[in-house]
Amino acid sequence: MHFIKVTEESFDKLKNRMDIKKILDKSWQDILESEFDKEYFKELNKFIEKEYLMNPEGIFPSKENVFRAFSECKFEDVKLVIIGQDPYPTKGHAHGLCFSVAQNVRPFPKSLNNIFKEIQADLGTEFPQNGNLERWVNQGVLLLNSVLTVKEGEAGSHSNIGWEKFTDKIIACLNEYKTGVVYLLWGAKAIEKAKNVNAQKNLILSSVHPSPLSAYRGFFGSKHFSQANNYLIMKKKTPIKW
User: Which of 30, 37, 77, 86 is flagged as catalytic?
Assistant: First the structure.
């Protein structure tokens, strides 16, 4: 693992490189503009910049992919939200979309593999050839992790530094400005995070997490994917090609 020495001069030069206003689509910028000026977000941004500077190859996803879920899915296009926890801590896996992995990753992470199993059982589709879920994002699926970065090999290592507050704001904005959105909430943490979403104006589908420890206790057989599509059709929206 490669480390570089952090000096005040080098940090001053690099600390502003991750400019969220340049990364996010304008639709998200307009919704979240006031959040960027809050003290917690400034401190979060400073902390993350320092982490990448000190350990550029050991923080996931790569810096340019931290806000990928938002840069590739415009606010107005969001019609379904899946909430994950934090990025995969395995090198080469995380690329900014929850549950998704880079194109060439084999075997699939176990939770993702179970998601694909349920899709196959629910919809009768073929098992996917790759685990890159960008194909969902392009259809209006926001793949949102609660925490957007992680240290290599240390799941949860960037929890409680401000990401949760930022992603809570994302969900609050979706709930305030959009209706007819499907929320797929897998596991207690995802259910808790979206507890304030209006269930009368959106579809909320919840179950246990798709991990091998819990998938057989309610994720398998939940038929969330067909239910989601039926709801979207009812709302005169194009269903997702899972």
Answer: 86
